[in-house]
Amino acid sequence: MFVYIVKRILLMIPTLFGVMFVTFVITQFVPGGPVEKMISDIEGYGKGGGEVSGGTVGIYRGASGLDKEKVEELKKLYGFDKSPAERFLTMMKNYLVFDFGDSYYYNRSVVDLVLSRMPVSMSLGLWNFLIVYGICIPLGIKKAVRDGSRFDTLSSTVILIGYGIPGFVLGVLLLVLFGGGSFWSIFPLRGLVSDNWAELSYLGKVLDYLWHMVLPVTAGGVGSLAVMTMLTKNAFLEEIRRQYVLTARAKGLSENQVLYKHIFRNGIIPIITGFPGFFLASFFTGSLLIETIFSLDGMGLLAYESVLNRDYPVVLGTLYFFTLIGLVSRLLSDLSYVLVDPRISFKAVEG
C-alpha cells in the first residue's frame, strides 16, 4: 500500500500543475483583466467628477484618459509587466509554500480572505454532511428492506420531488413561507448569527446560530438527501438478493442478524468509500445561490465575486487549494476501500 500511496502522490504533481496551467492560460485570453478593469474604474470615476484616491491620484486627465506611463505603472503594480511564462512560474513557486499573494479587489491577503469566508461554508457543509448521512443511511436501509411496499413508494415520491426542486427555488420558497416574505416570520432572513449575538448567553448563541441555519441547510441539503438515500437503498438491495443472504436465513438467523451482521458490512461499502470526498467537499466548498439568497458571505459568493472582478490571485489561489483538497480526497476514498473491504488489495497495482 505504501508504494501505491507514493505513486498517487507523485501523480498529483503533474495533475495539479496541469490544472493550474490550463486555468492560467485561459485567464490570459479573458477580455478585461485587472489592469483594464482598474483603468475603466478610474476613467469612469474621473468622468463622474469625483476625485480618484490612493495610488491613482493624478492619473486621470479628463477626456484624454490615462497617461501611458501611469498605465505601465498599473501593469507593474499587478505584475503584468512580466511575461506570462515568468508570471506562471513565479506563481507556482509561491503556491508551493501556500503563498497566494494579495487580492486585487479586496486589498487583503488571499489566505486571510479565505479564512474569513470559511466559517460560513463550513457551517453549511457540516450540517449538510451530518443530516445527509444521519438520515439517508437508515432511510435507505429501511427502503431496501421494505422494497416495493407503500412506505417505499411514498418515501421515493417525496424525496424525488425534493430532488427535482432546485435548491435556490426551494430557498426562495422557504423565505416566502417562513422568513416573513408573505406568510410567517419564523426564521431570520439573512446572516449566520443575529446582530446582538455577542450579547447573548452561551446557550443563546448556540440557539441563535442553529436558528439561522435551518432555512439555508434545508434548501441546500434536500438534493443530497435524495441522491444518498437512493444510493444506500440500491446498495443494500443488491446485497439482499445475493446467495449468502439466503444461506444465512436457511441457517435460522433472524432478519436483524442477517441485516446487521452480514448485509450491512457489505452494503455500506459504497457509502463509506464516498465519505472522505463528501466530507471534505462539504467543509470547503460553497453554494453561490444559497449564500446569495440568505445573504451569507461564504466561499461560493467569494468565488463568483472574484471571477466577476478579475481578481486572479483569489481565483487561482482558491483553485489551487481546492484542487489539492480534491486530489487528496480521491486518494482517501481509494484507501477507504481497503479499510472497509479486505478483499481489495493494491498489491497487483504496486507490482
UniProtKB/TrEMBL annotation:
The keyword Transmembrane applies. One of its GO terms (cellular component) is plasma membrane. Its main location: membrane. It is found in: Cell membrane. CDD domains: TM_PBP2. Keywords: Cell membrane, Membrane, Transmembrane, Transmembrane helix, Transport. It comes from the Bacteria. GO terms for biological process: microcin transport; transmembrane transport. It holds the Pfam family BPD_transp_1. It is a multi-pass membrane protein. The keyword Membrane applies. Residues 118-333 form the ABC transmembrane type-1 domain. The chain crosses the membrane at residues 9-30, 124-141, 161-189, 209-232, 268-294, 314-333. Belongs to the binding-protein-dependent transport system permease family. This is Microcin C ABC transporter permease YejB. It comes from Desulfomarina profundi.
